[in-house]
Design brief:
Layout: H1 2-41, E1 44-46, E2 52-54, H2 58-64, H3 67-99, H4 105-117, H5 120-130, H6 137-142, H7 155-180, H8 184-192, H9 197-225, H10 229-234, H11 242-245, H12 248-258, H13 262-290
Antiparallel strand pairs: 1-2
Helix pairs in contact: 2-13, 3-7, 3-9, 4-7, 7-9, 9-13, 12-13
């Protein structure tokens, strides 16, 4: 009997490995192999006809001595600061409103989620028209005359506004799932104790939704630190404000596919990964103080 159980267990184990094999193979080929290749390439110099030559840490030395690199790093951090806190707060507000007893909730959820399924190029085209300094609707509404996308002080702010608008729906859906898992008995007990809506939010809603909020925060911060396509489509390459808005990934694109310096570009990618890792570790350390996993 024990031999039969052992054979059955081994057979189930083989089937389990067979089921997860496509995912493991995909991770190795599409994630880990490119990561290792990028790391090795960051210690190389790209020569003519795609040939590479090992040059040690020279790419990193050149990168850290490059003022444009530090400017891009600051632009990336600034973009994250501008988009993540405001976006998360607005997404939480939208999730709370969608969780309330209102008519046509399903329709409102679809409307808020719609930006996530729209083509980024179409979104950028519409917002570029809205931010146009001559005939843009935003200037008309505010009654001002600002060249949003050609002014160094407002270009990154305009990109941040578009990023916030695009991500609110997705983040709101994630937070809404957390809100719907909160038992109504907590609110009923709090109401009997005389707690108002604000007290219920800070004493019940926020602690109970904190795990979902933490995951959403991690995802949004990673996406902000990797921003590229939005800036590329909102700001023309001939625009003089490029140095004031380009992110690390935008600088990587310019070095890898415009200048053809793939070794230097790989060093930028490794730096970006380290930056994301540092931010993520800090978040995981800090979440012990505000994330509540007790249900």
């Amino acid at each position: 009997m024990s031999k039969q159980k052992t054979m059955v267990a081994k057979q189930e184990q083989r089937w389990a490995w067979l089921m997860v094999a496509p995912t493991i193979i995909g991770l190795l080929i599409l994630n880990y192999y490119p990561l290792i290749q990028t790391f090795l390439l960051s210690f190389s110099k790209t020569k003519t006809f795609g040939a590479v030559e090992f040059n040690g840490i020279q790419n990193y030395i050149d990168m850290f001595q490059m003022p444009e690199f530090w400017k891009a790093t600051w632009n990336t951090i600034l973009f994250c600061i501008l988009t993540v806190p405001v976006g998360i707060v607005l997404a939480l507000l939208v999730a709370i409103l969608l969780n309330a007893k209102v008519r046509f909730k399903g329709g409102f959820r679809a409307i808020y989620f719609l930006p996530m399924v729209c083509a980024p190029a179409a979104i950028a085209m519409v917002w570029r028209w809205m931010f146009n300094g001559e005939y843009g609707i935003i200037n008309s509404i505010l009654g001002v005359n600002i060249n949003w996308l050609t002014n160094p002080s407002t270009a990154i702010l305009a990109c941040a506004i578009v990023a916030i608008w695009s991500s609110i729906g997705y983040d709101a859906v994630l937070l809404l799932s957390g809100l719907q898992n909160i038992s109504k008995s907590y609110y009923e007990a709090a109401h009997l104790d005389g707690a108002g809506p604000i007290r219920q939010f800070f004493s019940i809603t926020l602690p109970m939704i904190s795990p979902t909020l933490f995951v959403t925060l991690i995802m949004r911060m990673m996406a902000s630190l990797k921003v590229y396509d939005l800036i590329y489509m909102m700001i023309d390459q001939s625009n003089p404000v490029i140095p004031d808005v380009q992110s690390l990934m935008y600088l990587f694109y310019r070095e890898a596919f415009v200048a053809g310096n793939k070794g230097f570009a790989s060093a930028i990618v490794i730096w970006t990964i380290l930056l994301i890792g540092i931010v993520t570790i800090v978040q995981f350390i800090g979440q012990k103080k505000w994330v509540n996993y007790d249900v």
